[in-house]
Structure formats: structure tokens, C-alpha cells
TrEMBL record:
<dbReference type="Pfam" id="PF21981">
    <property type="entry name" value="RecX_HTH3"/>
</dbReference>
<dbReference type="InterPro" id="IPR053926">
    <property type="entry name" value="RecX_HTH_1st"/>
</dbReference>
<dbReference type="Pfam" id="PF02631">
    <property type="entry name" value="RecX_HTH2"/>
</dbReference>
<keyword id="KW-0963">Cytoplasm</keyword>
<dbReference type="GO" id="GO:0005737">
    <property type="term" value="C:cytoplasm"/>
</dbReference>
<dbReference type="InterPro" id="IPR053924">
    <property type="entry name" value="RecX_HTH_2nd"/>
</dbReference>
<dbReference type="InterPro" id="IPR003783">
    <property type="entry name" value="Regulatory_RecX"/>
</dbReference>
<protein>
    <recommendedName>
        <fullName>Regulatory protein RecX</fullName>
    </recommendedName>
</protein>
<dbReference type="GO" id="GO:0006282">
    <property type="term" value="P:regulation of DNA repair"/>
</dbReference>
<comment type="similarity">
    <text>Belongs to the RecX family.</text>
</comment>
<feature type="compositionally biased region" description="Basic and acidic residues">
    <location>
        <begin position="25"/>
        <end position="35"/>
    </location>
</feature>
<feature type="region of interest" description="Disordered">
    <location>
        <begin position="1"/>
        <end position="70"/>
    </location>
</feature>
<comment type="function">
    <text>Modulates RecA activity.</text>
</comment>
<dbReference type="InterPro" id="IPR053925">
    <property type="entry name" value="RecX_HTH_3rd"/>
</dbReference>
<dbReference type="Pfam" id="PF21982">
    <property type="entry name" value="RecX_HTH1"/>
</dbReference>
<feature type="domain" description="RecX second three-helical">
    <location>
        <begin position="119"/>
        <end position="160"/>
    </location>
</feature>
<feature type="domain" description="RecX third three-helical">
    <location>
        <begin position="167"/>
        <end position="208"/>
    </location>
</feature>
Length: 245
């Protein structure tokens, strides 16, 4: 048998010839070698497919030898706690999404609480301190955020006790003083309405917000007060009340 020289007979179309060779190879079975190899070794893992979502892979990927659910839960929680604190509820929700059985999740979360890796009270204190100082949030908004993270009742109230009325008023003043320079081109009524709305979104009640806005405006000489329009009218125009928060 003569060997292949790499040259095609004169007049042969390389593309068509390659197509015929590929077709003959497939018909003979050699062209399917890669497919058979892939089928023997299993499909390539799809990062978004069922294989990636399976919570308990066994050793060497054996489906009939699942991993210990508690071991899986511990690994998930430790990764989640790396670099940032989490509440028990946040971790419980994460384990549920990963398919960890409730009994195993509860056992692991209880153990993490015993050794101090989960501490909702400490989380709440740190959260309140950070959000009140950094974002100027009122207790009402802070309470809502803690509730959304699974911290409620006594633990939340103890953390919120660190913020008193004076703290809220001081934080509200800082927010108004920071925003007021950007409102120099609008009239006092419009600026008042916008500032009260901003404080409302931060969780402040209408009475406190209106008082702080009036005080800051008077101290800085912002605008001129129209004798026919008082602050109560501006407050009403904002559509905000204590009940709305």
C-alpha cells in the first residue's frame, strides 16, 4: 500500500475532497471516536446545569454515594461567613436554596451559634452603628432592614436602643446640610418639600423632618419665607406623614 503524500490528485477540490473523507470517516465509525470517548467519560459539566446544582456529590462523582449533608452545610456556611457576618436566617435561606435538608441545616446552624460563628445580636449592633453613622438612617428604617435580614424582636430592639432621639436629629441635620447647597436654585417651598421627602426615605417622621429642615434653612438664611405660606403647607405638599413611613 502506498503512503499518503499529502498531495491531492490534480483537479481535486480540497474542500469537497475533505468533505468526502470526513463523510467516509464518519460512515466507518472513526469520525465518532471523540463522541464515543465523551460518552464513556460523561458529558462536560455545565456550570448552569443540574450537575452544578447538585448539592451532595459523592466521592469521585458517584451519585450512589452522597456526601454527608451536615458536612456540605458546614462548608457552605463557612464560605458564606468568610469576610462578612451573616444572620442565622440569611444562612438558613442559603442552605435551603442549595438543597440542604432542613434537619442537617438546623444542626449546623445550632452548632455555629454555640461556638459564636453566628451571633444575631452582635450583627444587629454592628449593622445599626454602621448604617446610622454612614447612611444617616433613622430607627424606623434600621428596624425594617434588620427585619429583612431575619433579626427581629428583642435582639433588634436592643441594637436600636443605641440610637436615641438626639442621634436621629443630629443625623437628620447632617443630611439636610449636605443636600441643601444643591438646592440653591429652587425656592424655599420646593427645597423644603424635597428635603422632607429625602428624610422620609431615610425613615424620619414628618414632624422631626419638618423641624430639622426649617431650623437649618433659618440658620443658613435659605430663601425668604412667604408670609402666606408656612412650613406646614410645604410639609403637606410633600405627601408625607408619620403614618406613611
Amino acid at each position: 500500500m502506498t503512503g499518503w503524500s499529502g498531495a491531492l490528485p490534480e483537479g481535486t477540490d480540497p474542500d469537497r475532497s475533505g468533505g468526502r473523507r470526513g463523510r467516509r470517516a464518519r460512515e466507518s465509525g472513526f469520525g465518532d471516536r471523540a463522541g464515543r470517548t465523551q460518552r464513556r467519560s460523561g458529558p462536560s459539566p455545565d456550570p448552569d446545569g443540574p450537575a452544578a446544582a447538585a448539592p451532595f456529590p459523592g466521592p469521585d462523582g458517584a451519585d450512589d454515594e452522597p456526601a454527608d449533608p451536615e458536612a456540605v452545610a458546614r462548608a457552605i456556611c463557612l464560605r458564606a461567613l468568610t469576610g462578612t457576618a451573616k444572620t442565622r436566617q440569611q444562612l438558613a435561606d442559603l442552605l435551603a436554596r442549595r438543597g440542604v435538608p432542613e434537619e442537617a441545616a438546623t444542626a449546623v446552624l445550632d452548632r455555629f451559634g454555640e461556638v459564636g460563628l453566628i451571633d444575631d445580636a452582635a450583627f444587629a449592633r454592628a449593622w445599626v452603628t454602621s448604617r446610622q453613622a454612614g447612611r444617616g438612617l433613622a430607627r424606623r428604617a434600621l428596624r425594617a432592614e434588620l427585619r429583612a435580614k431575619g433579626v427581629d424582636g428583642e435582639e433588634a430592639e436592643q441594637a436600636l436602643a443605641g440610637v436615641d432621639d438626639d442621634d436621629e436629629r443630629a443625623a437628620a441635620r447632617r443630611l439636610v446640610e449636605r443636600r441643601l447647597p444643591s438646592l440653591r436654585r429652587v425656592d424655599r417651598t420646593t427645597a423644603t418639600r424635597r428635603l422632607i421627602g429625602m428624610l422620609a426615605r431615610k425613615g424620619y417622621g414628618g414632624g422631626l423632618a419638618a423641624g430639622v429642615v426649617r431650623d437649618v434653612m433659618d440658620e443658613t438664611g435659605f430663601g425668604a419665607v412667604d408670609p402666606d405660606t408656612d412650613l406646614a403647607d410645604a410639609d403637606g405638599g410633600s405627601g408625607w406623614s408619620d403614618q406613611d413611613a
